[in-house]
Write a structure and sequence with these properties.
- Nitrate reductase is a key enzyme involved in the first step of nitrate assimilation in plants, fungi and bacteria.
- This protein has 899 residues and is α+β, with helices and mostly antiparallel strands.
- Among the domains are: 142 residues, Sandwich (Immunoglobulin-like); 83 residues, Cytochrome b5-like heme/steroid binding domain (Flavocytochrome B2, Chain A, domain 1), CATH 3.10.120.10; 106 residues, Translation factors (Elongation Factor Tu (Ef-tu), domain 3, Beta Barrel); 147 residues, 3-Layer(aba) Sandwich (Rossmann fold), CATH 3.40.50.
- The strands form 10 sheets. The protein has a 6-stranded antiparallel beta sheet with strand order 15-25-24-23-17-18, with no helix packed on it. Strands 33-32-35-30-31-34 form a 6-stranded antiparallel beta sheet.
- A hairpin with a 7-residue loop joins strand 17 and strand 18.
- It is elongated and about 105 Å long.
- It starts with 37 loop residues before the first helix and ends with a strand.
- The structure holds the ligand Nc1nc2c(c(=O)[nH]1)N[C@H]1C(S)=C(S)[C@@H](COP(=O)(O)O)O[C@H]1N2 and molybdenum atom.
- The ligand Nc1nc2c(c(=O)[nH]1)N[C@H]1C(S)=C(S)[C@@H](COP(=O)(O)O)O[C@H]1N2 binds next to strand 3 and strand 8.
């Protein structure tokens, strides 16, 4: 027998593998018809005694595989000769066979996957090869080579050095279902089990190519399989340079986990390429073609590519040049990871068991890179924890010298590249899990590339690798976990759920907060508005200011300037109370944060003078002696002239983006002190590092009824930051505020008050109404709800109410149960109409946004005989629609009240 060059990694430079006139072939005739028979070859190539007979090995061996039968569903297909494991999930109907194992089964098999559970990607029928013909299987090495080879599998085993090592194959479509939920791609729905690891035995592709002798100018190696498909034989190519690089580990293989190849995995011969997508590892290998250009095979061009994300399925049909662009072809895998435990829908009791749960899963990187860290977040990426990682692949390095496994030399000791998946785990305390909305994981590789937060959608849906997100559902005394998707058309997973709820999964927040998408308060940079009257030059003394601290002639200070609010007491949208509340004080903070540019532009009219810096300092010092710091218990919490702290004691989620924040007041009998229909101001410090700890002040209407004592409930819709726009500073800061922290309140403010039995005051003037039309959207329900509850809660009150409440989806409707309860008990006095802009098919209520037609139909022109007031609260654009619509129907401005 001929002695082969023993170490393939002695290739020392890119040009060294090209044949030169001086280099003579070491092999004279590769196309001999051998007289070796089946058993000869097996004896040499597969030492059956080496599987375990020598005692335990320091590296993993595959679990025992099963003896399967041809399944009934395959009998009527061209694959009727293929025995398969019934546990595999078929992703493309019965045929062709494209399958993945249930994710937990795959994980449970451990580092090595049996042929039974190894994923399969077949573009068409499986070629039939009789066992007796395996060794006679012929294939070629042709194209730009000096000595074209035609050889049999027998030759390959007999004449070349055999090697064995573990390799993880991953289909480029792994996790594609997630892309399909976002938007249908041209690919079928893989879950997260489109990958498997096996011990592959074969011959280094570089050895074969060297034997054939590579011509100058050659740059690619094309492969072609025996499976005839609608667009020709399956084929693709890789770079020649990689084929020659021992670090890349590309092999021609005929054995998987010690067994001759299963028909689904390429029986009898295939290419196996570590670190690259499975699509390049051509099965049923017939031809190896060395070439100057990449493969022109249809499957090389129209499969396994990541086109730019804006190329739609429709547009892609007419872009041949885009498809051919080699830069879009996928070779190396990208870094990816998934959680396998908890499994989808796994339920975890919170009590009676261990205090932690071990999250576990897999990760891999491409091109021989190592996964260098895996991080877990329980707060949507704000903070991360390192998980433990194990690399079973490294254990093969411990194999003794000259180890032969399955007839192939197992020598991983010199390898630096990683060809396999690794496993991560992290014990998470139940106490933390309970408070988490979700658990997300991301892996990083040793080139410091980290999995992205957001998906890169592309027309073939390949290489999907955003953070793997497991949603945590609190259900009584248990937690239930929800994976992003389930493979195939089977329902399940948070992505489909969120989508069905009418939300946008790619809103940058996993679809969670979409209700606010169009309503979000986008804060624009503050323009400089001139608030002083240049004509005014009067210096005002502190004492004089202090004389104006009542309701007669209220003066107040903003930015060191003094304003007289007297003329505006009536017209002030925040009501006279808020001006009087600031009388005699420096109200810069709340004034600047609450008022619009328009309001600020009005200020020169009220400007009367300025305060000296000394006076300002004194004023600030005096503010500290405000009543809120006195020790005697106050019966009423809210004070109009000073901020009163209350401690945040709980946050209760009531919809995807809305929470009730509960604050504990000074003592259990302290009442809030907020008249019905009025609002309070809330002040907290912006925690974001770039904010300089600015105070943020917003007005809210609490949920607590006027009779409430001891606590204060505020319903707040949180406007989260999104890819497209910044969210709300206040609401996000509030959301991030830990329990136990204090927030400041002040009030009441507001020009409207409901006194009961149809009596109300608007801007201090009393008015009696017979009917309210209340128009609101989203969290705009809060002030409306206060008034409605007061009206409906009093049986002696005959005022009628019609509520028009607009939302996106049913789940977004706040206080729905309470509203419906009021309608029920109200005996016709109250009607509530919900209108949804993104309803499910099953929704029987109103559909669409609020518009003129709706107002026309449900409200109409103002009635002459009965005094009706329209109360409005919602985002700006909605309020504009109401203002315009009602105006056109003949409603007078003073009958419309915008909260
Ligand atoms: N001849 C041939 N080779 C092929 C394919 C195929 O359909 N025909 N599918 C490819 C794809 S896309 C993948 S992901 C891998 C899957 O290998 P497996 O089925 O052994 O897991 O094979 C690749 N090689
Ligand atoms: Mo694939």
């Amino acid at each position: 027998m001929e002695v082969m060059s023993s170490v393939t990694h002695s290739v020392d430079g890119p040009s060294s593998f090209h044949a030169s006139p001086g280099a003579l072939p070491s092999h004279k005739d590769a196309t001999i018809t051998s007289t070796y028979d089946w058993s000869d070859v097996l004896d040499r190539a597969y030492d059956v005694s080496d599987s375990g007979a020598r005692g335990p090995r320091p590296y993993p061996l595959p679990p025992k595989s099963r003896k399967n039968k041809v399944l009934p569903e395959d009998l009527k297909t061209p694959d009727s000769h293929v025995e398969r494991d019934p546990r595999l999930i078929r992703l493309t109907g019965v045929h062709p066979f494209n399958v993945e194992a249930p994710l937990s089964d795959l994980y449970d098999e451990g580092f090595l996957t049996t042929k039974d559970l190894h994923y399969v990607r077949n573009h068409g029928p499986v070629p039939l090869v009789e066992d007796s013909e395996i060794l006679n299987w012929e294939f070629t090495v042709e194209g730009m080579v000096e000595r074209p080879l035609k050889l049999t599998l027998r030759d390959l085993i007999r004449d070349y050095e055999q090697v064995t090592y573990p390799i993880t194959l991953v289909c480029a479509g792994n996790r594609r279902k997630e892309q399909n939920v976002v938007r249908k791609t041209k690919g079928f729905s893989w879950g997260a089990a489109g990958l498997s690891t096996a011990l592959w035995t074969g011959v280094s592709l570089g050895d074969l190519l060297l034997r054939a002798g590579i011509m100058r100018g050659a740059r690619y190696v094309c492969f072609e399989g025996a499976d005839k498909l609608p667009n020709g034989y399956y084929g693709t190519s890789v770079k020649l340079n990689w084929a020659m690089d021992p670090n890349r580990g590309i092999m021609v293989s005929y054995r998987m986990n010690g067994e001759l190849l299963h028909p689904d995995h390429g029986k009898p011969l295939r290419i196996v390429i570590p670190g690259q997508i499975g699509g390049r590892s051509v099965k049923w290998l017939k031809r190896i073609i060395v070439s100057a250009a990449p493969s022109d095979n249809w499957y090389h061009i129209y499969d396994n590519r990541v086109l730019p994300t804006m190329v739609s399925p429709e547009a892609s049909a007419n872009l041949p040049e885009t498809w051919k662009d080699e830069r879009y072809a996928i070779y190396d895998l990208n870094t990816n990871s998934a959680a396998c435990y908890p499994a989808h829908d796994e339920v975890l009791p919170l009590t009676g068991g261990p205090e932690t749960y071990k999250f576990r899963g897999y990760a891999y990187a491409g091109g021989g890179k190592r996964v260098s860290r895996l991080e877990v977040t329980l707060d949507q990426g704000k903070t991360w924890t390192l998980a433990n990682i194990t690399y079973p692949e490294d254990e093969y390095k411990l194999a003794p010298e000259n180890e032969i496994l399955y007839g192939g030399r197992l020598d991983m000791s010199w390898r630096e590249a990683c060809f396999c998946w690794c496993f991560w785990d992290l014990d998470i305390p139940l106490a933390q899990l309970r408070d988490a909305r979700d658990v997300m994981v991301r892996a990083m590789d040793d080139s410091m590339m980290v999995q992205p937060r957001d998906m890169y959608w592309s027309v073939l849906g390949m290489m999907n690798n955003p953070w793997f997100r497991v949603v945590v559902h609190k259900e009584g005394d248990t937690l239930r976990f929800e994976h992003p998707t389930q493979p195939t058309l089977a329902g399940g997973g948070w992505m489909e759920r969120v989508k069905k709820e009418g939300r946008n999964i790619v809103n940058g927040f996993w679809g969670e907060k979409v209700a606010g998408e169009e309503e979000a308060v986008v804060e624009e940079p503050v323009k400089e508005i001139c608030m002083v009257n240049k004509e005014v030059s009067r210096d005002i003394a502190l004492d004089e200011l202090r004389e104006h601290d009542g309701d007669a002639q209220p003066w107040f200070v903003v930015n060191g300037q003094v304003y007289d609010g007297t003329k505006f007491l009536e017209g002030h949208p925040g009501g006279a109370a808020s001006i009087i509340g600031g009388a005699g004080q420096d109200v810069t903070e709340e004034f600047m944060t609450i008022h619009s540019e328009n309001a600020k532009a009005m200020m020169p009219d009220y400007h009367i003078g300025s305060l000296s810096p000394e006076s300002l300092a004194q004023l600030a010092a005096g503010a500290d002696e405000s009543p809120s710091t006195s020790s005697s218990p106050r019966p009423v919490f809210l004070q109009s002239k000073s901020w009163s702290p209350a401690v945040l004691t709980s946050k209760t989620k009531v919809s995807s983006d809305t929470k009730i924040f509960t604050f504990t007041l000074d003592h259990p009998t302290q009442i809030i002190g907020l008249p019905v229909g009025q609002h309070l101001m809330m002040r907290l410090r912006d925690p974001s590092p770039s904010s300089g700890s600015d105070a943020i002040i917003r007005a809210y209407t609490p949920l607590s009824p006027p009779s409430a004592a001891g606590t204060l409930d505020v319903l707040v819709k949180i406007y989260y930051d999104k890819a497209a726009a910044k969210g709300g500073r206040m609401t996000q800061a509030l959301d991030a505020l830990p329990l136990g922290r204090a927030v400041d309140f002040k009030g009441p403010i507001g020009k409207f008050e409901y006194l009961g039995k149809g009596r109300c005051t608007v801007g201090g003037r009393e008015r009696k109404v017979a009917r309210f039309v209340m128009v609101c959207a989203g969290s705009g329900i809060t002030p409306i709800y206060q008034v409605l509850r007061a009206v409906m809660g009093d049986e002696g009150d005959e005022t009628e109410c019609l509520v028009l409440d607009a939302n996106r989806v049913e789940q977004d409707i706040l206080c729905k149960a309470e509203l419906d309860g009021m309608v029920e008990r109200g005996a016709g006095r109250c009607r509530v109409l919900y209108s949804l802009s993104r309803p499910l098919a099953s929704w029987t209520g109103l559909r669409g946004r609020m518009d003129r037609a709706l107002f026309e139909r449900e409200v109409g022109a103002p009635p002459v005989e009965r005094d009706t007031m329209v109360l409005v609260c919602g985002p700006g654009p909605m309020e504009e629609v109401v203002r315009k619509g009602f105006g056109e129907m003949g409603w007078a401005e003073e009958d419309l009240l915008f909260f």
